[in-house]
Design goal:
With 942 residues, the protein is α/β, with parallel strands linked by helices. Among the domains are: 4-101, MutS, DNA mismatch repair protein, domain I (3-Layer(aba) Sandwich); 116-269, MutS, connector domain (Nucleotidyltransferase, domain 5), CATH 3.30.420; 442-534, Orthogonal Bundle (MutS, DNA mismatch repair protein, Chain A, domain 3); 588-784, P-loop containing nucleotide triphosphate hydrolases (Rossmann fold); 809-815 and 833-872, no CATH class; 900-942. It contains 33 helices and 31 strands. Strands 13-23-24-25-21-26-27 form a seven-stranded mixed β-sheet, with helices on both faces. It has a six-stranded mixed β-sheet with strand order 3-4-2-1-5-6, sandwiched between helices. This is DNA mismatch repair protein MutS. Residues 697-713 form the DNA mismatch repair proteins mutS family domain. Belongs to the DNA mismatch repair MutS family. This protein is involved in the repair of mismatches in DNA. It is possible that it carries out the mismatch recognition step. This protein has a weak ATPase activity.
Amino acid sequence: MPTGIVGEFLDLKAETDADVLAMQCGDFYEFFADDAELVADELDLTVSQKSSHGSSYPMAGVPLSELTPYVKALVERGYRVAVADQYETDDGHAREITRVVTPGTLLETADDDARYLATVVREGDGPAAGSSAASGDASGPYGLALADVTTGRFLVTEVETAGDLRAELYRFDPAEVLPGPHVRNDDRLLGAVREDLSGSVSVFDAEAFAPGRAKHAVREQFGRETADSVGIDSEPALRAAGAVLGYVEETGAGVLASMTRLTAYDDGEHVAVDATTQRNLELTETMRGDADGSLFETVDHTVTAAGGRLLREWLTRPRRDREELDRRLDAIAALASAALARDRLRETLGDAYDLERLAARATSGSAGARELLSVRDSLALVPALADAVSGTALADSPIAAILDRIDRDRAAALHAELADALADDPPKTKTQGGLLREGYDEELDELIASHEEAAEWLDTLAEREKRQYGLSHVTVDRNKTDGYYIQVGKSVADQVPEHYREIKTLKNSKRFVTDELEEREREVLRLEEARGELEYELFEALRERVADDAELLQDVGRAVAETDALASLATHAAGNDWTRPELADERRLDVEAGRHPVVERTTDFVPNDLRLDAERGFLIVTGPNMSGKSTYMRQAALIQLLAQAGSFVPARAATVGLVDGIYTRVGALDELAQGRSTFMVEMQELSNILHSATADSLVILDEVGRGTATYDGISIAWAATEYLHNEVRARTLFATHYHELTTLADHLPRVENVHVAVDERDGEVTFLRTVREGPTNRSYGVHVADLAGVPEPVVSRADAVLDRLREEKAIEAKGGERGGGGGGGTPTDTAEGDTKQVVFDLSSGSFSESDGAESAAADDPGSRGGRNGATPGSESDGAGGTTGAAETAGAAETADSAETGRLDPETRAVIEELTDVDVAETAPVELLSRVQEWQSRLDESR
Ligand code: ADP
């Protein structure tokens, strides 16, 4: 075991569970051993070797004053950094760990985004739950607490399921998560959380999650009254809150004091938007992970950091209460139509600093003079903002009400105090003097005057000595070892007067002191110290004064943020011809000439209508690849979401019935592009939607069942449609490449077909981007092969094979016939009674009632059954059994055909391979790539 300095370092390191330790050694912070290597790797520090009692250790160091940026850089990379400081003792010095900086408690951040620390507790979690807690056995709700130490925001809630928990975490994207004792052992949940978040997961003392201790911590921090009145009556929520406080205290970042705003939020107020949906709708980043091209980036015209944070929150946490939404819409309507007033308001807002963060820095004691100046300047805007509103069209809008909430007298008083106290251009450090304005404090002014006088005497001493004693080459200076001295050039050193006492000889000069100089020196140093101390004392008092008004600063900050976010939405609405949605309580979404808010920015966009309501609650969207299905569906979801964020929407007109949740899942192809597609994931997402959505939800399904074999896929899509239509009754848009599903519209009363139209002429496809009623008139896979120039014999054979593969197998449609009852019923009223059994024949693509009567399959019956009138295969190729059992179509038969006989060998080989493909057993993605391969081979052989 090493001893000496390295030994001490390793001992301290063993005390902490931080990843890295920085230990003060005199004027440096040093890292030793593994920590030195790690820091050197991450931050490009030079490693040297430290010999300690015969062994040698890697060592890296940074000067005391430069530690902060290094710690920040390490923490931003996800490390927890312990800092050990050195202090004097009677017999030398000692060191101890004074703080641990972690991703969630890092106060110094240049990033404008909120920086949350999150704790998660599950009901029934005892501190002793230990390793026996598997993911299934604690069944209660989850408590979640989120603290932003940079602004003092503190949110507490309870959520029911692991999915809700993930959605909340995804939305806040905490920099650090502390799982409670049970959650810590739930590998599945923790794995998912790790995958969802960019932040790190830290382990924290299980004791801190214990109910008694947590309750105590919350009451200590916020006062018994607040803790009780905010109404965290959920035990897991309370425990989560207590654990956050415990962690913040233990890490010693000194920010506990800034945690003043406890907010319990209850998700009854918000629209459920799970993590998958936030990702699919690209709310804050695109599927590829870029901020550019996200909804937030598109509508964000905020001019303050706090405004940006709030706008992001609005978009990721849409609301359900009409009152609040109407208030926002009123404000945006007023702002959108008053361009001049809006511009003036935004210009004024632009000068505001981040008051929420400044308040936190004042309370934590880390604010310097420049930060207090920022407070001063931001407070100066309060009257300016009021002026920008009064007498304009905004005077009667909710904007005026927002600004009226600020206690203007209090703001003016604090502003005046800061204006009187602070110097205009203070230095960055707090100890150098120059922080305060002349006239602020008489005693300080006197000290400064005497200090300057004494300094002046010293400054002019050299001149006086030159004159008085006829000396050339005289300077007066000071340094650490000699203090003040008179330095005389060697050539004249023998001419100095007698009272000069020599203290040092240098190469070309000599240094002297005199009694008077020494006395003046003592005087100057005394004054310097007294001035510094007094000034710092006054400054501390001023900062405390600001900290006392933290709530005021937060109020002003909140008003600025809100005004900024609203002005941003108004700016976007005015600039892009968005319209005010009419919010409705009925279950409907009625959009006239709607557009996709992001795609419309870069494309010549074709607007489309949409109608979902009680009679027409489920739309099956068909159309070829790339025709615009997913854009159409996402635009519906985004219009819904924007309306419930309180924003205008990209449409000519929109009536938006409020929803309780927006659920989406996107198909295998999109997910493949992100490298995260497994059929399991797809089914988990589907399962979540079927469990969570209600008759008040909006559901977007962009392909279901693509990740598995055709018959599996179609069966699942079929059953999911029935379930959503009959049981859940959510408003649903479902894009599918299973053309078979379009026939469901004839039998399920609220299902309708729409398709994205394309124009085909001379083999050329033009995408019209127009959504029309009814299904597409044919299946598109083979059609695309045709358009791509695959030879006619191959295409017609493919059609025939396709039809063959549609077994003579029947599926019954559950849920009653078109026009049947049940249109506006409750989600659970689909009793067996109104379920009409209809049978779908996959080979003919048509339905028959269970009594055997045929019913028309699609609006355009002639289009089914394959090209060139090829009849559906009647032999069943022995494909009995259930899903996925369709066997390969006969290859021999193909090779024998007269047409194929005339073909070149390569084309024949392609046809053989095509015939051999077991469509039912091959994933669509693979099919696609094989079709591509065949095409290029055919191209070459031609
Ligand atoms: P699909 O889901 O049918 O494969 P997408 O929705 O992905 O098709 O759309 C394909 C392309 O068409 C996208 O690049 C999109 O920008 C463009 N697009 C979609 N809808 C429209 C529209 N209404 N107006 C203009 N371009 C559109």
